[in-house]
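Subject: sequence -> structure tokens, single chain

Hey, anyone have a minute? Need the predicted structure for the following. Not urgent.
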Amino acid sequence: MAKPPRLNSLAARLIAAAAVWTVLALAAGGFVLSGAFRNAAQNNFDTSLITDMDGLIAAADPDPEGGVSLQARFLNHRFDRVYSGLYYQIKPGGAESSGGQISRSLFDKQIMPGGFRREGARMWGYAEGPENQHLRVLAQRVEFPITATEAPGDTSSYTFLVAGDMSQVESETREFNGILFWSFLLLGLGLLMAILIQVRIGLMPLRRVSEALARIRDGHARRLEGNFPSEIAPLAGELNSLIQHSEEVVGRARTHVSNLAHFLKTPLSVLTSEAEANPGPLADQVKSQVGSTRRQVDHYLARARAAGSLDVLGNRTEVEAVLSGLTRVLSRIHGDRGIDIDCECPADLYFRGERQDLEEMAGNLIDNACKWAKSQVRVRAVREGARLVLTVEDDGPGLTETERAQVGSRGERLDESVPGTGLGLAIVRDISKLYQGFFVLDASPLGGLLARLNLPALS
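Reply:
Had a minute. Here:
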């Protein structure tokens, strides 16, 4: 399962920004649609009131005295049901006057409208109806001639009121808002899911770059591999160029260090030869200082090579191949003493580092064991979690705890009876530290010394 994006990630920012704008847009759209629907329902309701008003006026039959009688066949039947939500009232004079003729649906109530707004010959307002109904009121003034008098032009004026309960409009609006809310909620969730998928797919090339860099760091690749979109391809190209440049810089630095070491070894060899050709106290002092200088050159050359290799991405070394090669070579070198080297290492074990550094460390340990062993050297390499553990044991005389603590000190040797510079274990210790590893000495079940080297491993 994909991990949820972290709050400080680019994916989280894109999703959050898109989610905020989506919610705001849906809220604004819902508000506009709700208002538009309410206006449409209100207009439809007003149209029905206008129709009822036209029917009421058509049903009005003036008498000679200026009175009004109604013909029921032209009226809406809802006017006859008590508190039906549709009412009329015919008032003599203005709309603010009281009395007049009322519909049966009003029973004993009166319509007292207020806040009228005129639209041509009609006026619109609101009033409180029976049972706390909220009424929409339409008023229209009508004049009827009085024919019972001889005076010409006599008329009687009436205000016709038609009122309807707004609960129907409110109910329709609430129902529409409920449908609108759930529809927009589902739409919003769908849009957020689409945004999430879009961001995940859109940022997938960046994750591929991250995975490719991890493969380089772990030693599974030397360059960024794969096809990237046109926006990411320049980044991948620059990273590959940077990696190549880093390798070239490190390679040149290591070459310069090696050249310097070889340059120093030549005059040191000349001084050694001259000292051997002219024995004496001065010659002994020269040979002692030359030997110390040569050990220091070898020591720092190994450290410089190891430190340089750490800066190169993609280092990956097969442990079994290195140990097999060292075992084969050292078996020949110490073959005249009958040393048996027993080596075991899984084929899928890899060291996260330079091959030369592993050869330097393992070679020093195995060679040191062969120098002191009586007949047997045992080499084991295993994986413990993300670490490589290399143990080298011998059946030689071994060392005391105090002597083991002194071994590896720079320039110090416990015994001059075997050849060597005495810096092999110090080099092992220094190189292992550069790789965030460690090196310890202990007593071996074979009777001699056990050297344990802990280094980073690769799967």
